[in-house]
């Protein structure tokens, strides 16, 4: 009962239990942070809007994205993954979510930003439903912790509309 | 070490009844571990409630050796969720993020396209030939939490499995673009 093997075993078990407990507490502390993120997205230009050879609509946009996600960072945050998705409804699909741009924000200092880019991922529909389509641009963020539970939330900005004709 | 000698002596002087008792006790311990694992599978709704990240395709968020906790519900997949999925014909499941989602109005079926955060291209190259969307049957679960990655033994096992898989795929001349994870 007092040999090296027993003692090492007891010590290791205790250490692992304490470690798991600390990780759980670290994750739980994330619930108490006060989060007030803000964002604005502007469509500066519709670069082009065409129907592909096999029938799907595709549009290219230039976006102006302003956001302040600094309040999402806690001491247990590894990074924040933010992305902008166009969300709309068609006759066949009750929901379409197409990610247009994403970024990994590793530090709090980088979380307040202004960026002007054209869409990083192609905005392609399943079909040809995009003419005159009203859609929302939603900024989603996923807070990835150093350890524990991941949180995700979003800001929905509505009122965007695609042109009625291809160009 | 004294306890090895003590154990050997105790084995030499053992009687049948004691042997059987110890065998039954061991069996009970093993089966209760199995019961806990199965219960965890029921609670989380996935075949694999805990997986290990094998590749760097989700860095810097998930590093190789990180442990992920999965959960699966009936709710449809939405953009941004980190999903673990199996591709037909590949053994190792992959942990990537959904970037495009199309949900059918009438059936509720969802088409999903995924991409690793650290990859430049989406996962179409990883899907089966001719497949361009993932569906519910391919997806094992959503990642809901992670444990710190200094779990060294898992890291070694993970590396070994990943390298074996890579070797196998290279000989089959299939592209390997930021593969995934295993349990």
TrEMBL record, chain A:
Entry superkingdom: Eukaryota
Main location: endoplasmic reticulum
Cell location: Endoplasmic reticulum membrane
UniProt keywords, alphabetically: Endoplasmic reticulum, Membrane, Signal-anchor, Transmembrane, Transmembrane helix
GO cellular component: signal peptidase complex
PANTHER family: MICROSOMAL SIGNAL PEPTIDASE 23 KD SUBUNIT SPC22/23, SIGNAL PEPTIDASE COMPLEX SUBUNIT 3B
Function: Essential component of the signal peptidase complex (SPC) which catalyzes the cleavage of N-terminal signal sequences from nascent proteins as they are translocated into the lumen of the endoplasmic reticulum. Essential for the SPC catalytic activity, possibly by stabilizing and positioning the active center of the complex close to the lumenal surface.
Protein name per UniProt: Signal peptidase complex subunit 3
Species: Arabis nemorensis
Lineage: Eukaryota, Viridiplantae, Streptophyta, Embryophyta, Tracheophyta
Automatic annotation (TrEMBL), chain B:
EC top class, as a word: hydrolase
The entry's keywords: Endoplasmic reticulum, Hydrolase, Membrane, Protease, Signal-anchor, Transmembrane, Transmembrane helix
EC number(s) given by UniProt: 3.4.21.89
Transmembrane segments: none
Domain of life: Eukaryota
GO molecular function: serine-type endopeptidase activity; signal peptidase activity
Swiss-Prot/TrEMBL catalytic activity: Cleavage of hydrophobic, N-terminal signal or leader sequences from secreted and periplasmic proteins
Membrane topology: Single-pass type II membrane protein
GO cellular component, as recorded: signal peptidase complex
Protein known as: signal peptidase I
Organism name: Arabis nemorensis
Lineage per the UniProt record: Eukaryota, Viridiplantae, Streptophyta, Embryophyta, Tracheophyta
